[in-house]
Amino acid sequence: MELIRGTSTPEVWLASCEYLAKQSNHEDFDVILHVTDPSPLSKADAMVLRGVEDFLVKHGGASVYTVAETIFPLQDYLRGGKKAVFETYPERMAKIHAVRKDRQWGNYAMRILRQKDRDGTIYNPLKDLLKKIQDHGEYKATFELGRGHAMDGVETEQDDLEMAGDDIAIYHGAADRRPMYGHLPCLMHLSVKLDHGKVRMNATYRSHYYVQRLLGNLLGLARLQYFLAHEARLDIGPLTINSTYAKLDTGEGKWSMRDIKALLAESRQFYAVKETA
Q1: Residues spanned by the domain of 238
Q2: From residue 73, how far is each of 23, 89, 94, 219 by CA, in Å?
Q3: Closest to 90 (Cα-Cα) out of 108, 117, 65
Q4: What is the predicted pLDDT for the residue at 104?
Q5: Can you tell me whether residue 148 is helix, strand or coil?
Q6: Which UniProt keywords are present, listed alphabetically (predicted)?
Q7: Which of 5, 125, 142, 194 keeps 20 to 30 A from 100, CA to CA?
Q8: What is each CA distance from 238 to 38, 49, 131, in whole angstroms?
Q9: Is the pTM above the cut of 0.90?
Q10: What is the pLDDT of residues 53-74, one digit of tens each?
Q11: What is the three-class DSSP state of 17?
């Protein structure tokens, strides 16, 4: 167990990977990551982000930005505002899922944008959450993404027998209780809090690959946090992640531990320059 604090998402990514690099089997349980200022990026942060992106693309991994977009569709938001997030993106993803065998791609964003209520009514959890924040900003701990029934034809990790409530719909007991590996959801819970005019976010991960996924996850969650704060005219607070199992992964053999350590050393140099400037 370890608590790792930092100012930015790339800074925390680097510190957490350096920590795992020193652990037995390059893994640990209950690694808590706390980012105090998740949205802005310094010059050093941008260089680290670019280095990780280049590393992943070069070695055949998923782009940092691709991973981030599966959590929140920033490009749609920048092009068309919240209407594009609430309407355009889900419509496009529905068409993509209709022709894909793997419907889990982009599923975290779809889960917070389209669900079914107990009576079969389709609703938008993120839209409802935003309205709740805008209408009842005096409360601190009642702003969590709502649980609903799964959309037909969309793989969600949610038990349809559960009542609508205040937790994000992640784990699907009927579908996920048997598989031991591969298709189980990694993001298990997402909570939003208001703290004196700031939007805080807390995410819990069942399993977390720190090379292939973590920086993209941090970026995507920070973008979602920015969206809520910007639309509600609030400030952005800290972002906290609990990786209940954290692994410094080798991308199923696409890169080696030596490659990872070289990436970390190169990334650390960007912050070393900042500290001596």
Answers
A1: 2-276
A2: 34, 7, 14, 11
A3: 108
A4: 57
A5: coil
A6: Plasmid
A7: 125
A8: 7, 19, 21
A9: no
A10: 999 999 999 999 999 998 999 9
A11: helix
Q: What does the pLDDT look like over 176-223, one tens digit per residue?
A: 444 444 556 788 888 899 999 999 999 999 999 999 999 999 999 999
Q: Quote the Cα angle for 103-109-114, to 5°.
A: 80
**Mean pLDDT in residue range 245-267:** 98
Indicate the pairing of strand 27-35 with strand 143-144: unpaired
Q: How many domains does the chain have?
A: 1
Task: Pull the structure tokens for residue 268.
Answer: 């650390």
| Residue-level pLDDT at 157 | 38
- The CA distance from 112 to 233, in Å, is 21
d(CA 59, CA 255): 6
Alpha-carbon span 234 to 228, nearest angstrom: 8
Question: 188: which 2 tokens?
Answer: 């298990």
- Pairing of β 198-205 and β 143-144: unpaired
Instruction: Give the confidence band of 95 by pLDDT, cuts at 50, 70, 90.
Output: confident
pLDDT over threshold 60, residue 243: yes
Residue 62, CB-side half-sphere exposure with 13 Å CA sphere: 19
pLDDT of residue 153: 46
